[in-house]
Write a structure and sequence with these properties.
The structure holds two protein chains of two kinds.
Chain A lengths: L5 H10 L2 H25 L4 H16 L5 H16 L7 H21 L8 H30 L5 H24 L1
Chain B lengths: L7 E2 L1 H20 L2 H19 L6 E7 L3 E3 L4 E9 L2 E2 L5 E2 L4 E7 L6 E4 L4 E5 L7 E9 L3 E6 L2 E6 L4 E4 L6 E7 L27 E12 L11 H7 L3 E6 L5 E7 L16 H18 L3 E7 L6 E5 L2 H12 L22 E6 L5 H11 L3 E6 L13 H23 L4 E3 L3 H19 L4
The chains are: A mainly alpha, B alpha+beta.
């Protein structure tokens, strides 16, 4: 919920029960698992970056309605980008799915007060959404694998077009945020 | 009723927008399709959330189900979140795109129990074009006038992308918790209400009535049919039979609210001195009105200076309870001048006090010398010095204080003012009866 200070949130965390507590656990565990996947994909552990990500994830579990979640997601992506060379390995699907679950768990945790009892219908709805978000990367990954095998000419035109498309979606999303 | 103040994007939506843009932009610029895979879930969340952007602001109606109840009873705080339906092209009311979940947080307050505990609720909004209703159970555990602060009500759109917060105007809902009468345990039950207008207690005055009082010499103004001829012939002077007036006994309840000693734990918990005082006054008012007596109430030391004139009946009991519920200790002695000075001889005056200040006993002794019948009810919690919140020094201080009070109570008793601990109205009746008997013996009355 909005307007909660960190100390309030820490107290509220002790009041969580059932699904709300499980959601907090997912928020804390998802970055840990994602950074583990990166280490496995890279073939060696990166303790410092992993520790930072895990700590940030744990703090995000206490304060889900903040921008800390964005920092964790960017950090996970940066770790992947820097540690793992251009790769479309299967680990990528797992990390992307964990990012999706992390994002959705944060959103769900921010939707309800920490001490409120979450109903079965409400939880089921968010579980379904979690499955959708976890499945989405697999489709994109499959498309990327297919596209990589296809020889594409005029790479600069493709990159420019993609940038324009990304910018358009960004402007559209940001306009909704302002309105 | 509160009008909506608009929806705003949440941190989750910002995360989806900014996160997906950073990852997708980097993927395109650095030609890293793997980053596009990482951005995919955020893209999906962004698209789904943007698609479900609400079109209407909800309207909230909220309030307490019952604004006046007895301490320990519960009522509901009802919040109705309504979304104004829009009319489609065919003139049919369509469900507006808006809230998916509705949450409410009512700030916990001391001596107010909430259910669910912590006062936090969340529910799926109604899928049909009907209002969503959230209900919190509110139970005041102590008498008094409570202020329930406006809850925080938040509606969230699908995928948690947009949030609407009900504007809070600082308004409070007032909840009056009337004191629960402390009738004591094992005491005889209160007699049923007197069916007529006349109480079961005799008036202290002689006057027109049917109940024989005594035979006295004739005075001018006496009605002739009252002359007792056998007695007049025997004595040689005219004598008449006098009767007790057909009026009810006047019971004056004086509540000492200067200080509240001890910490109240609400109904069923350890009482403070004011808890005992107020609940005892409520029990006495119910008891005496139930017997048909006229009861008046004077509060001393309360921030609100109240004086209820003598009356009887259930509505008067309600007024007494309402006045008791409004008591707040002022910390200083205010309002002793409100005690009526023209009380009829024989009125029963009950002073309920923790006896922390000497005025109660002093006033009772003065009343006794005026021919009134004062009884002082000691309302200090009996277990005060044994409470765990006191340190050993405080406990010792209270033991010494209790010795001082016992000494003063003994002195008052020697001057005809009984000081009794609170047990029940019936127990107090016994004390008053004994006191009357003692006085009659002393003054040689033969009623």
């Amino acid at each position: 919920m909005s307007g909660l200070r960190l100390d309030d949130s820490a107290w509220l965390l002790t009041r969580t029960r059932g699904p709300a507590r499980a959601t907090r656990l997912i928020i804390a565990l998802a970055p840990l698992l994602a950074t583990l996947c990166t280490s496995l994909a890279a073939g060696r552990p990166y303790l410092l970056s992993s520790a930072i990500i895990v700590v940030l994830g744990a703090i995000a579990a206490v304060a889900p309605d903040t921008h800390l979640g964005l920092v964790v997601i960017v950090a996970l992506a940066a770790e992947w980008m820097l540690r793992v060379p251009d790769s479309l390995s299967a680990w990528l699907i797992a990390i992307a799915a964990l990012i999706g679950v992390f994002h959705l768990a944060l959103t769900f945790a921010a939707t309800a007060p920490a001490g409120a009892a979450l109903g079965r219908d409400l939880c089921l709805r968010w579980v379904q959404r979690g499955l959708v978000l976890a499945a989405a990367p697999a489709l994109v990954w499959a498309s990327a694998v297919v596209l990589r095998r296809v020889e594409l000419g005029a790479q600069s035109v493709l990159v420019t077009g993609a940038l324009v498309a990304v910018s358009a979606v960004g402007v559209w999303g940001a306009s909704a945020q302002r309105s | 009723m509160t009008d909506g103040a608009g929806w705003s994007a949440t941190a989750a939506h910002a995360r989806a927008v900014v996160g997906s843009m950073i990852l997708a932009g980097t993927a395109v610029v650095l030609r890293r399709p793997d980053l596009l895979v990482l951005a995919a879930p955020l893209f999906v969340a962004l698209l789904a959330g943007r698609q479900a952007k609400p079109t209407h602001s909800p309207v909230v109606r909220q309030g307490l189900g019952n604004r006046s109840l007895t301490e320990g009873e519960a009522t509901t705080y009802r919040m109705q979140i309504d979304e104004v339906a829009e009319v489609d092209g065919e003139g049919q009311a369509a469900r507006p795109r808006g809230a998916e979940t509705v949450a409410a947080v009512l700030e916990p307050q001391r001596l107010i129990e909430l259910s669910p505990a912590d006062g936090q609720l969340v529910a799926l909004a109604n899928d049909r074009a009907e209002p969503s209703v959230l209900e919190l159970v509110v139970r005041p555990t102590r008498w008094g006038n409570h202020s329930i602060r406006e809850p925080l009500i938040i509606a969230t759109s699908s995928w948690g992308s947009y949030r609407w917060t009900a504007p809070r105007r600082g308004a409070t809902q007032h909840l009056q918790a009337l004191p629960r009468a402390a009738n004591g345990s094992g005491s005889p039950s209160t007699p049923a209400s007197a069916p007529g207008l006349v109480g079961s207690h005799r008036s202290p005055r002689h006057g027109t009535g049917v109940e024989f009082a005594n035979i006295r010499p004739f005075v001018a103004g006496d009605r002739l049919h009252r002359i007792r001829w056998p007695h007049s012939l025997r004595t040689g002077t005219l004598h008449v039979a006098s009767t007790w007036a057909d009026q009810d006994r006047h019971v004056v309840l004086i509540v000492d609210a200067v200080v509240d000693v001890g910490r109240s734990a609400g109904v069923g918990g350890a009482p403070s001195s004011l808890d005992i005082t107020v609940r005892a006054a409520a029990a006495l008012a119910e008891h005496h009105v139930g017997q048909g007596d006229r009861v008046s109430l004077v509060t001393v030391g309360s921030q609100r200076r109240d004086h209820l004139p003598p009356a009887t009946g259930p509505r008067h009991v309600r007024r007494v309870l309402s006045t008791l519920a409004a008591i707040e200790p002022a910390g200083v002695l205010v309002g002793p001048d409100r005690i009526p000075k023209n009380l009829g001889r024989g009125s029963l005056v009950i002073i309920l006090s923790p006896l922390r200040t000497p005025w109660a006993l002093a006033r009772a002794v003065a009343m006794s010398s005026q021919g009134l019948v004062p009884v002082v009810v000691d309302c200090l919690p009996p277990d005060l010095e044994n409470r765990p919140e006191l340190n050993p020094h405080e406990a010792a201080a209270w033991r010494i204080e209790r010795m001082r009070r016992d000494h003063e109570a003994r002195r008052a008793g020697e001057r005809g003012v009984p000081v009794v601990p609170w047990r029940s109205p019936a127990d107090l009746e016994r004390v008053v009866r004994d006191m009357h008997r003692h006085r009659r013996v002393r003054s040689g009355w033969s009623a």
